[in-house]
What we know:
- By secondary structure, the chain is mainly beta.
- It has one helix at residues 6-14, and strands spanning 17-18, 37-45, 49-57, 63-69, 74-77, 80-83, 93-99, 104-109, 119-124, 130-131, 137-139, 142-143, 145-147.
- It contains 1 helix and 13 strands; from the N terminus they run αβββββββββββββ.
Amino acid sequence: MRSFATLNILAAAVGSVTAVPFSTRGSPQQSGFNKKCDTPYFFEDPKFGPFFSANCKSGNDTKARYILNLDHCFTNDGGNIKGGEEGNFSHTCNNMTFSVTTNNLTASCKPQGTGNDPMNSTITLSDYIGAMDDGNLVCYGAKGELSK
């Protein structure tokens, strides 16, 4: 798992950030993030991987921006991006793009253990990333971090 030291680097991209510990994993109430969140944003940090961010509404109707490292959510399975806890897909996938209109993430992924060329793969983030009642982004129990 990557250190919260990454937040210092990410703060320049999305503002100051407060860490939410990953030790609070569980099975929170979730729905596709697009039901509670707007203004989705994707960026790649060359050192720490791909991140997804969105403004999400909490139970009291206030909004806050959360950031989630996508390596906690996805894996590379034979060149295809698939949902998977702590999958670290960015180690073998690159050239990532995100469509705000479809919530699709597309990447060029190298099939592991083969001499095959990388292949394009697409996954819909809202099928795997939810927003909890407090508005925080979550996938497979990994919670995002609050940006202030």
